[in-house]
Specification:
4-stranded mixed β-sheet, alpha/beta, 211 residues, 2,3-Dihydroxybiphenyl 1,2-Dioxygenase, domain 1, 5-stranded mixed β-sheet, single chain
Length: 211
C-alpha cells in the first residue's frame, strides 16, 4: 500500500500527534510548517524512507471537512441532553470493539517492540502533558490453543493479565485510541492498531477470522 493520510484538528495538536506517531515506531522524514499547522511525512520504517510506499501523512483537517463535521455534530446535538441515540450507540460499539469503525493497522516484526511501545505510551498517557488524558488503550491477546504462544503471553508484562481475545489465533493486537487525531463520522478520535503475528503460523489473526 502506498500511503494513508491522517488529520489533527487544533494546530497545537500537530506536534503532539507527531510525537505519538514517533512513539509508535514511525519514522518522521519531513515537517513542513504551514499557517494552519505543520504537514508531516512518516514512513513505517527506514526501508521506506526514499520509496513511495509505507507512508503516513499527517496534516491539519481541511476547513471543508471540519465544517462538515461541525454541522453533523450540530444536527445530532452531540453532547446535549437531546443527543441523537445513534451517537451513544456508536460510542458503545467502539468501546466494546475498537475495530468496528475506521482504524489504521500497523504490523510489527517484534512482539518485544510492540510491548515496549505500548508500555511506554501507557505510562506517558498518565505523566506526559502532551498525551495525558488523550489516549485510551485496549489489548487483545491470541485465542488460546498453542502452548508456546500461550506461555509467551502469560509471561508478558503487557498481555499477562489480558482477558480479551482477538478474532483469531497466533497474534496479538494493541489498540491506541487518541483524540489527538480526527476520524470517523463525528471527527472525535482515531484508533491505531499495532499487530504482531507469531512466526511460522499459517493461520493467524490477519489471515483467518474466527467468530
Amino acid at each position: 500500500m502506498g500511503h494513508i493520510a491522517l488529520h489533527y484538528d487544533a494546530p497545537e495538536d500537530g506536534p503532539k500527534a507527531a510525537k505519538l506517531l514517533k512513539l509508535l515506531g514511525l519514522v518522521e522524514t519531513q515537517e513542513l510548517p504551514l499557517p494552519g499547522g505543520s504537514f508531516y511525512r512518516f514512513v513505517i520504517d527506514p526501508r521506506h524512507q526514499a520509496r513511495g510506499d509505507g507512508i503516513i501523512y499527517l496534516s491539519s483537517t481541511p476547513p471543508a471537512q471540519r465544517d462538515l463535521t461541525a454541522a453533523i455534530r450540530q444536527m445530532l446535538k452531540v453532547g446535549a441532553p437531546e443527543e441523537h441515540p445513534a451517537v451513544a450507540g456508536m460510542r458503545a460499539a467502539l468501546e466494546a470493539d475498537p475495530e468496528v469503525s475506521f482504524h489504521v493497522g500497523i504490523l510489527l516484526d517484534s512482539l518485544e517492540e510492540l510491548e515496549r511501545a505500548v508500555l511506554d505510551i501507557r505510562d506517558r498517557a498518565e505523566t506526559d502533558p502532551d498525551l495525558k488524558g488523550r489516549i485510551k488503550i485496549k489489548l487483545n491477546r491470541a485465542r488460546p490453543g498453542d502452548a508456546d504462544v500461550d506461555a509467551r503471553l502469560d509471561a508478558s508484562l503487557l498481555y499477562g493479565s489480558v482477558s480479551r481475545y482477538a478474532y483469531g489465533r497466533n497474534g496479538v493486537q494493541a489498540f491506541i485510541e487518541t483524540n489527538l487525531l480526527s476520524s470517523g463520522p463525528l471527527g472525535e478520535s482515531l484508533v491505531i492498531e499495532l499487530d504482531y503475528v507469531f512466526p511460522g503460523k499459517t493461520s493467524h489473526i490477519l489471515s483467518v477470522v474466527e467468530l
